[in-house]
Amino acid sequence: MSELRLRLARVEDAPAITVLARRVVRRWIIPHQPRAGVLALEEGLSTPIIRAKILAGQRFHLAFVDGVLAGIAAVRDDRHVFQLFVGTRYQGRGIARKLWHRLRRDCMRRAGTRVFTLNAALAAVPVYLRLGFVRDDDPRRKPGKVLSMPMIFRAGRHS
């Protein structure tokens, strides 16, 4: 049986985060994006940008399977999930759910967060629905360069 270990990222994890995130994005997200979306995604996943985000206090929760980085869940402002990626070979093992639960508990403990938002890749919408997110139809949202589905999670009493 494989060993799963979760921990917060350190600055020196930035290159590994970049490699995993780019692999997942290239496989599952980029094929459905316009050129402007592809450029925005690629730029945001560079090692210097990831390193800067970690240094700025954005929290990256990492999942390792037998010592190999298998998943990432990242949040800014303790409420907006901007990465929830699991490597293709590790999908279907509950890693995304475990990362989401850890990120959510961390934000609730640190900041009392009860509402989380994210912009789901269209292919990932079913995953987020299973995690308890719903479509966010707030008319004030303006579309960005990346095609995505705005989603929201409201914590209940027992979350």
The CATH superfamily is identified as Gcn5-related N-acetyltransferase (GNAT)
| Element pattern in H and E | EHHHEEEHEHEE
Report the sheet-strand fraction: 25-35%
Strand order of the largest sheet: 1-2-3-4-5-7-6
- The count of helical stretches stands at 5
Under CATH at level 1, the class stands as Alpha Beta
Mean pLDDT: 92
Q: How many domain regions?
A: 1
Instruction: Categorize the overall geometry.
Output: globular
Structural class: alpha+beta
* Radius of gyration, taken over Cα atoms and rounded to an integer in Å: 15 Å
End-to-end separation in angstroms reads 29 Å
Please describe the biggest sheet, giving its number of strands, its sense, and whether it closes into a barrel: 7 strands, mixed
Describe the structure in your own words.
Helices cover 36% and strands 26% of the residues. By secondary structure, the chain is an alpha+beta fold. The protein has a single domain, classed as Gcn5-related N-acetyltransferase (GNAT) (Aminopeptidase), CATH 3.40.630. Strands 1-2-3-4-5-7-6 form a 7-stranded mixed beta sheet, with helices on both faces. A hairpin with a 2-residue loop joins strand 2 (59-65) and strand 3 (68-76). Helix 1 crosses helix 3 (47-55). The longest helix is centred in the middle third of the chain and has 17 residues, at 95-111.
